[in-house]
User: What shape does this take?
Amino acid sequence: MVSPRDDSAGRCLQRTETACDSTYSHHHPLGHERSITVVKYNYDGDLLFTASKDHVPSMWAESGERIGTFNGHKGTIWDLDVDRFSTRVLTASADATCRLWECSTGTCIQNFPHRGPVRGVAWADGAQ
Assistant: This one.
């Protein structure tokens, strides 16, 4: 389980009991410099994608290691969505852009300018 927090750390939590009233313990922090705005797993559940007010979306392995960043936005990242095969990720930013990134390299494939902050992105059926 992953829990975003306002203190910019974010937390990956590991379940300690199986009952409904169980508690969660801190597993490791997510290394953003500002508040986390979105946390999403890929379709297979083996990669975690996070974004924050620090302008740098990140990709994480199951181990908690940051394995990729997507550099280029100049504003808060409000949303992101990874495609079905974890090859591309879309990001929505307060810098009035939506960007398409290649997951394996962190390269920006395309920039979609808008007239104001972009608050949401999602893949359509068929990864369009």
